[in-house]
Design a protein that fits this description.
The chain is an alpha/beta fold. It has two domains: 137 residues, 3-Layer(aba) Sandwich (Rossmann fold); 183 residues, Methylesterase CheB, C-terminal domain (Rossmann fold), CATH 3.40.50. The chain has twelve helices and 14 strands. The strands form three sheets. It has a seven-stranded parallel beta sheet, sandwiched between helices. Strands 2-1-3-4-5 form a five-stranded parallel beta sheet, with helices on both faces. α10 links the parallel β12 and β13. α3 packs parallel to α4. It is elongated.
């Protein structure tokens, strides 16, 4: 009897409204593969229960007393990294709520549809269950685990750097913000990013990164020519590729690691197009996306930098890249922008 229970996805439900907690619990437990192991009425209680219950996934309200969802998620990710799906009644169309929760470390976000028509409630039920299950599948590779260390410093590139490509997932928005704040508009090459994000929120993330970093960030469009100093995000449900003529190509070929967009696809396309002129960055995130692509970058004589464990919200993708032998340097997030500038411009800090 214990074995089937252990196979279930264990969820902690966090919401300051008791009725909402009960409704979320009821929606989740319509799926026999999910069990709710606890409920918290505020963010502080959520932090305590996350440490005690060690759930697979936490559904997190945003506006709560004591600690709000932003701070609670940050504290959970710092102390006991756990997949968090935000569930909120706040408007999501502006993108700021989504960006802040993703920056805190959430893996996804959905809107509440309580008290509305049955079709909306059913859509919420399906979306909530799908996101919780996806978060549970992705939770492997959290911080900790003693990956081997890469060399402290790579050799200088033999050819000019022509493009920077970036992989990021859970914890990625915050890491991207720090990276972009350290770069300059006169960077002599463009930056292409695959950030795993909840569908529908890529434009909001681009706008938030632009406003907070001061860099020019946009969602990539098929057929556009990329420009130095610009930052391009992969759009929803499309792989992002680049040609040797620096033209964006968006493809809906099959997902890789159940992901579309996948950083492996971008890294592979960049290494084919620009060879040794590629710098690839693997930032905080669950899973192993980017590791295979990083191997392709290295095989083409490009350089691979990964975020170190101490500054990652989730040390999954960087760890996988290091363990694949594909990392040239392992750096704290605060040092990566300076290293990129040095590699791209030849200037030393």
């Amino acid at each position: 009897m214990g074995s089937p229970e252990r196979a279930k996805v264990r969820v902690l439900v966090v919401d300051d409204v008791r009725t909402a907690r009960h409704l979320i619990r009821a929606l989740l437990e319509t799926d026999p593969a999910i069990t709710v192991v606890g409920e918290a009425a505020d963010g502080a209680e959520a932090v305590r229960l996350a440490a005690r219950l060690r759930p697979d996934v936490i559904t997190m309200d945003v506006l709560m007393p004591v600690l709000d969802g932003y701070v609670a998620t940050q504290r959970i990710m710092a102390a006991q990294p756990t997949a968090v799906v935000a569930v909120t009644s706040l408007p999501l169309d502006g993108g700021s709520v989504v960006a802040r929760m993703l920056e805190a470390g959430a893996v996804g976000i959905i809107g509440k549809a309580f008290g509305r028509d049955p079709r909306a409630s059913e859509r919420m039920r399906r979306e909530l269950i799908a996101k919780v299950k996806a978060a549970a599948r992705a939770r492997g590779g959290v911080r900790g685990g003693g990956a081997q260390r890469a060399p402290a410093r790579a050799a200088r590139p033999r050819v000019p750097i022509r493009i920077v490509v970036v992989a990021a997932s859970t914890g990625g928005p915050g890491a991207l913000l720090e990276l972009l704040r350290g770069l300059r508009d006169d960077l002599p090459c463009p930056v292409l990013v695959v950030q795993h994000i909840a569908p529908g929120f890529g434009q909001g993330l681009a706008e938030w990164l632009s406003a907070t970093s001061g860099r020019r960030v946009s969602v990539a469009r098929d057929g556009e020519r990329i420009e130095p100093g610009r930052v391009y995000l992969a759009p929803d449900d499309h792989h992002l590729l680049i040609t040797d003529r620096q033209v964006v190509r968006l493809k809906q070929t099959p997902p890789v690691h159940s992901l579309r967009p996948a950083a492996d696809v971008l890294f592979g396309a960049a290494s084919q197009a620009f060879g040794a002129g590629v710098v690839a960055l693997v930032l905080s995130g669950m899973g192993n996306d980017g590791a295979d692509g990083a191997r392709q970058v290295k095989a083409a004589q490009g350089l691979v930098l990964v975020q170190d464990e101490a500054t990652c919200a989730i040390y999954g993708m960087p760890k996988a890249t290091v363990e694949a032998g594909a990392a040239d340097e392992v750096l704290p997030i605060g040092s990566i922008a300076g290293r990129v500038l040095e590699l791209c411009t030849g200037e030393t800090s």
